[in-house]
């Protein structure tokens, strides 16, 4: 049951257009004038499933009105409302349903996309591998093991998702949910008795398959537009800087680098994934399972990744990333070869 606290309101600018479900027959003007800060609106539903809103605090100041609370159908009155539980947004005009529905829609859409994608890639990456990577005596993963892990993954995701912060861009919102899914994946593997280091390897291998799908389109565009290796890398990197690593969700600047092998260098001063996992106490998980995917990503694009400074575990204020071309003789090794497992 969700509660919202009224932090402020606009007095007579609160039109109440919903029918009143109680013995209250007074004019809505009196109710508008009776709203006070710290009143509570509790969301509930009746037996028919209709969403109702209970105004608590109002009846305490109006004891002559029968009933301990007042119920309104469909919509709450229109104060500015701040939720301390499910939704972090400050809601203007009491548009509770719209904003909280938006939060749930983000999660529902994300889960709809990634349930099938992750299930497919997790099976390809994990089934048939040792449960303990350095100990064959524990046997190998089968499809049933992976299915149990995935069920527990989404159960943990549902527990973690209410704490996902709101981000200003679609790409940042997607990436924070991706980080939340990674943390849920890690927790599910630990529950299955997998060692921490082995769990990170399995997650890294699984998520790389998803990264590779996202990296294919920039690589294809770059190869169509130019044959110059540096220009190809710049196109790929700037495509990702447009989405999903775009401002203002991410903060970055392109820095000068006079090295002959460098195509582009970027200094990142804000990363929502690192910020989220740091709050969850999982900085090392971010480095092992997410940040380190940049190395195979650059190889897939035909380059070589160099990271002199990283925020995830060094507590630095920025990440310095250098996207370099490969050495002559190793430029196209393995590029374009898709995994067939």
UniProtKB/TrEMBL annotation:
Entry superkingdom: Bacteria
UniProt-recorded name of the protein: L-2-amino-thiazoline-4-carboxylic acid hydrolase
The organism of origin for this protein: Candidatus Abyssobacteria bacterium SURF_17
Organism lineage string: Bacteria, Pseudomonadati, Candidatus Hydrogenedentota, Candidatus Abyssobacteria
């Amino acid at each position: 049951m969700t509660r919202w606290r009224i932090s402020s309101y606009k007095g007579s600018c609160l039109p109440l257009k919903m029918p009143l479900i109680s013995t209250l027959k007074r004019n809505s003007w009196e109710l508008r004038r009776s709203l006070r800060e710290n009143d509570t609106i509790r969301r509930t539903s009746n037996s028919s499933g209709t969403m109702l809103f209970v105004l608590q605090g109002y009846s305490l100041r109006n004891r002559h009105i029968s009933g301990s609370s007042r119920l309104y159908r469909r919509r709450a009155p229109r104060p500015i409302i701040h939720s301390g539980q499910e939704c972090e947004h400050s809601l203007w005009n009491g548009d509770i349903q719209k904003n909280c529905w938006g939060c749930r829609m983000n999660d529902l859409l994300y889960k709809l996309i990634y349930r099938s994608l992750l299930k497919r890639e997790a099976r390809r990456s994990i089934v048939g591998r040792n449960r303990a990577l350095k100990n064959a005596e524990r046997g190998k993963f089968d499809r049933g093991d992976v299915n149990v892990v995935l069920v527990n993954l989404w159960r943990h995701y549902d527990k973690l998702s209410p704490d996902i912060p709101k981000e200003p861009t679609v790409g940042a919102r997607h990436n924070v949910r991706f980080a939340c899914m990674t943390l849920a994946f890690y927790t599910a593997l630990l529950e299955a008795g997998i060692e921490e280091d082995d769990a990170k390897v399995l997650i890294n291998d699984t998520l790389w398959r998803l990264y590779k799908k996202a990296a294919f389109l920039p690589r294809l565009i770059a190869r169509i537009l130019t044959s110059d290796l540096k220009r190809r890398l710049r196109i790929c990197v700037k495509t990702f800087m447009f989405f999903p690593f775009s401002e203002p969700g991410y903060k970055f600047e392109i820095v000068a680098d006079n090295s002959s092998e460098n195509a582009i260098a970027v200094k990142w001063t804000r990363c929502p994934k690192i910020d989220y996992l740091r709050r969850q106490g999982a900085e090392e998980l971010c480095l092992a399972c997410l940040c380190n995917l940049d190395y195979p990503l650059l190889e897939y694009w035909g380059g070589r990744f160099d990271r002199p400074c990283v925020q995830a575990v060094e507590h630095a204020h920025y990440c310095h990333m250098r996207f370099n071309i490969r050495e002559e003789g190793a430029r196209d090794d393995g590029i374009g070869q898709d995994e067939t497992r």
